[in-house]
Input
Amino acid sequence: MKLFHYAAPQNFYPLAGRLWPWLALLASALALAGLWVGFMLAPADAQQGQAYRIIYIHVPASWMAMLIYLAMAFWSVLGLVFQTRLSGLMTRALAPTGALLAFLSLWTGALWGKPMWGTYWVWDARLTSMLILLFLYLGYIALTSAIEDPRRSDRAGALVALVGAVNVPIIYFSVKWWNTLHQGASVSLTQSPRMASVMLTGMLLMSLALWLYAAAIALWRVRSLILARECHAAWVQHLPEVQAHRLRKGAT
Output
């Protein structure tokens, strides 16, 4: 029942305000540690040389782009089943970060592909399905922004998130299902890592940093969305920051 207590925007708003600065601070510290390990301590790869170091950005961004879309699908299920107002807001808050990381995955992958494959882009199954994920993010953002009624917008966005979630396992298993240029996973839950421990440490630090960053920025963004959606509610009018903004506006 405690969790359902925070499903109300007025209860979740102060919680998000307390959490996001600490998550952002921790994400920054882990990112600095991960970049130091990946770019300064980890040795060069025996086959790819120094070019492989882009994995410390590319792989965590790819993982998080997929994970965020699954999180959007999770919030969409909650919204459709329990009709919680917070669900649509959290899905909206996650989408821009997911789109950014999907773009970063494609961009860093292109930079990595040039020295490895001799080209920035091929219509490979993994690359194509990741591009589709980026289009799904952009489509969700465009659709929810185009519909003025909040309930209809949340419902339409939830359907897009749920249907698009089918693409995530396609991205993950594409290198196993089809003969692709993209290399297989270096880290798997069912096999031991195929990289040196220091390389793995750097990648995991960066992955955790991006996970915390995504959580922090989503909580920061959802607070703005809550204020915009609930602007006429009495509890919003009594917020100290809202009253301070009115005083500054009146003074000018």
User: Anything to note?
Assistant: The mean pLDDT is 87. Residues 27-251 form one domain. The longest helix spans residues 9-41. The two ends are 45 Å apart (CA to CA).
